[in-house]
From TrEMBL:
Pfam families: MFS_1 (PF07690)
Membrane topology label: Multi-pass membrane protein
Protein name listed in UniProt: MFS transporter
Record flagged with keyword Transmembrane: yes
Taxonomic lineage of the native organism: Bacteria, Pseudomonadati, Bacteroidota, Flavobacteriia, Flavobacteriales
Signal peptide region: none
Main location: membrane
Organism: Hwangdonia seohaensis
Keyword Signal: no
Length: 390
């Protein structure tokens, strides 16, 4: 079958089943990254390591994702998209299963770095892969459905995996996830269409993309939005303690998760037609939720409402920013989304570091002020970016 026939066959109607299958890939991708954070004490005791060393199991994974995304996406541009995804899923599975079987901390770190490298390639490439399976009018919808897996992973997957780890041991949790990834890879092998790679040219290189003003504008919005959100999210337990939220962090995450799920559904429906409006609203809702924490956080019910609004703002973050950067280029969308993905990961690291410093000097409310200070310019820039965001 020719390339044109493949494209026509898939693009004739929105391929919901294929997009949901791709969403399951991002679901296991976010679980692979965050899983150790839910079972830190268990891993500390079993491997006889410190809390910092256990935290590094997430940190090194994220650093590997940020460092290797751009060069490896450029190197693998010509690979068939389906077979490249099979290799990446194999890397995730091996990383998790062997981590659950070995007892040497150094080997587990190496395996986590392998997982991080696979993630660095997977996040940008799967969004671009999905966009090539639909008409241009549905690009935002495709990204929204695919990236919904990350929201589901954080709001539903993590509590389930953490419960499995606490009840049956962290090793069972890791091996179980590895087995689930093999299952997804098997279904993907038969269900996903084969799409050839693209040739990397001077015009589609990462350096060429960084010369496009509209791409730089989206990267600036990424920096502001991600640091604003994650600066508070990383230390969510400190905020919960500060406002003495009824029900504790579990209650906060429940309302946050409900908000996130609702906004993901809205993003699926409206991203293609209302990207600029949704981006502005993302910053507006973040500001409103943070102001509620400042002024009414201790009032009964208001803290929970603020977490719900914050979830509404947080849910479509990845979708909106990847849709925005992919709009700025005609070809090599993988490279564009890899540059955006690297800035995203870098922003999380900056957020964690700066927020940690603020928390060491001031109260947790300083993080709320920090988020507002970044969101206001983000909101203004998004509002005036008519040409870039449409």
């Amino acid at each position: 079958m020719s390339k044109q026939n493949i494209a026509q066959q898939v693009k004739s109607a929105f391929p919901w089943l294929i997009m949901i299958l791709m969403s399951s890939v991002t679901f296991v991708g976010i679980l692979s990254e965050l899983m150790p954070s839910g079972v830190l004490p268990l891993m500390m005791n079993d491997l006889n390591i410190s809390e910092v060393q256990t935290g590094n199991l997430v940190g090194y994974y994220a650093i590997a994702s940020a460092i290797f995304a751009i060069p490896l996406i450029s190197m693998t541009m010509q690979f068939n998209r389906k077979y490249l995804l099979m290799i990446l899923l194999g890397g995730f599975a091996v990383s998790n299963i062997i981590s659950g079987l070995v007892y040497d901390y150094t080997i587990i770190i190496v395996l986590r770095i392998i997982g991080g490298i696979c993630a660095g390639v997977m996040w940008p490439m799967i969004a671009a892969y999905g966009m090539r399976l639909v008409d241009e009018d549905n690009h935002g919808k495709a990204i929204a459905v695919i990236m919904a897996g990350t929201t589901l992973g954080i709001s539903i997957g993590m509590p389930i995996m953490t419960a499995i780890g606490n009840d049956y041991g962290w090793r069972t949790e890791f091996i179980g996830l590895g087995g689930f990834i093999i299952l997804i890879a098997s279904v993907s092998f038969f269900a996903l269409p084969s799409i050839p790679g693209e040739k990397l040219t001077k015009g589609s290189s990462p350096f060429a993309l960084l010369k496009i003003p509209a791409v730089l504008l989206v990267l600036l919005l990424t920096l502001l939005g991600v640091i604003a959100h994650y600066g508070v999210y990383v230390y969510i337990t400190s905020l919960v303690d500060e406002i003495q939220l009824a029900g504790g962090v579990e209650s906060a995450l429940l309302f946050f998760g409900i908000g996130s799920l609702i906004s993901v559904l809205l993003a699926i429906k409206y991203t293609d037609k209302h990207l600029r409006l949704l981006t502005v609203l993302m910053f507006v809702l973040l500001i409103i939720s943070m102001v509620i924490f400042l002024m009414f956080g201790g009032t009964k019910g208001m803290g929970h409402f603020a977490f719900f609004l914050w979830g509404l703002s947080f849910g479509p973050l990845v979708t909106l920013l990847q849709a925005a950067v992919s709009r700025q280029v005609e070809t090599a969308k993988d490279v564009a989304t890899s540059v955006q993905s690297s800035v995203f990961n870098l922003s999380i690291m900056i957020a964690s570091s700066v927020a940690g410093l603020l928390l060491g000097i001031y109260s947790p409310m300083s993080l709320v002020y920090f988020a507002i200070a970044l969101s206001i310019p983000g909101m203004v820039i998004a509002f005036f970016s008519k040409k870039t965001l449409g």
